[in-house]
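Two proteins were folded this term; both appear here.
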Amino acid sequence: MITWGNRHKYTVMAAFLGIVSVFMARQWDYDLWEVTASALNAFDLIKGHEIMFLGFFVVIGFAIDINNRRKRHRKFRELSEERVQAMKATMTTVNDIVNNALNSLQIFRLEAEKNAALSPGSIHQFDAIIFDTASRLKNVHDLDVFVPHKIAEGLTGIREN
């Protein structure tokens, strides 16, 4: 579970650093930004520079968080695309192997039909099995999103639809 603190860890760290800096400046009566104090003097905001100092850290931390999140998202998207391409390449190979086997079975079917070795009902069932297998292979090959599902204990497959 991703919490707000995990998602914006640099923002939180920057805010913490800013708060610690402000408290340290108060404790030791130390001026955080002597240069900005003179600029802010014209606006009668002598202590406003402390707030600006804190805000500076928060803005920098937030910018780093956004940049890191974009990098992670881009990397995740690239990895997902690579996985899909690898899965499609694997399915193409599996499709080729199984289709070659199904074509070989068709030759045996024609020979069995010619020699009347099987009943017409058995030949029809044999054809249905071959066409169903070819159709299921095509469905899996055409998938763009691969959703795993448990087939049996220790065996995971891909949901076809």
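Next, the second protein.
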Amino acid sequence: MNPKVVLPYRMMLTAAAAVIVLAACSKAQTPTAAQPPQVSVVTVHGTTVPVTVELPGRTNAYLVAQVRARVAGIVLKRDYKEGTDVKTDQRLYQIDPAPYIASLNSAKAALQKAQANVVAMNAQVQRFKPLVEGNAVSKQDYDNAVSSAGQAEADVASGKAAVDTAQINLGYTDVASPISGRAGISQVTQGAYVQASQATLMTTVQQIDPIYVDLTQSSTEGLQLRRDVASGKLKLNGPDQVKVKLLLEDGTEYSQTGSLQTTDITVDPNTGTVTVRALFPNPHSVLLPGMFVRARVEEGVTEHAFLVPQAGVAHDQKGQATALVVASGNKVELRTLQLRGTQGDRWIVDGGLQEGDRVVVGGVQKVQPGVAVIATEAPAATFGASVASASTASDATAANGKPAANVAAATKTARQPPASVATR
């Protein structure tokens, strides 16, 4: 082929190829419209929710009496069985009474001597009285006789006190229980020497029916509770109607219901807590002093709260509770929440949300605040039947103006967040 013809032909092919490559690059650089991420949401509705606080505590005996030796001596015998119930004034131990019987007899003899001396001194005064009027004896002798009679009467009073003391000490040899309750393990055995000067501990008697439960509550929680009551957000049931339930060490619920008795007015400077005391019946001695328990205290109700699944609530670095909400225009907003506690697997939110807000509970990791999303209502079965019951409880509340019975019965609220949710 003629070279003059081939060269223009090759140049045409090269230009055509460049045009094709440029067109392809132009198409590759054209951005493709991204689809909005899809998220699952739960629409929240205000409802009346019982406010229940869960507090740790320990049991303490209603009455405690340390039985100690009040006289010194050898323990002759123990008259009770360890771990059994005893009555007031029941003898628990007998200390050797022989020395105290002797002391009592000596005191009685001294009293008799003093009484006899009183008779002699009074007789002398009566003899000196007419003689001093006739100047047969001196006035000084008569005064001495009167003084001696007075001293004799004082000796009689002292003798009576000595007899009483000896009788009391003899009575202390029978060591009796000062209260009715359950006697503990004996700290002394037969033949042991006990001392009154050191108040030797012999045993302890405790009344455990009823029994106290001393709970510890954060002073911050107590302050927030008082603020809510003052603002009308929280309505207390009343001091005579506040119910307390116990969870035992093995996680089971104690069958008896207790009542609040008092709250300490002093805040522990080391822990920042105050002591709240509750009283529980303990007819079967299930609760023993010193047991660790957790108490659920029904403090009242909050009339307009929202129940949000745990998956929809997170905590930022400052420990504040947050949630993503699909707002107008299907754009995501970040809300800071005020939590009251939990009810089952849901958070109780009393601030930060509004009626009908859609809280993101699925696909949270795919969205950021300000991003438009496609929101789909999450099935109730995804988070358990409790999610659906929130709207049901709200409807029941609106219908009769009272909390729904199933909500009040099902509530078991804790101040602490569930173990599955990280908090500060």
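The mean pLDDT is 80. The helical segments are 3-28, 98-133, 139-172, 219-231, 385-400, 405-410. These notes refer to the second protein only.
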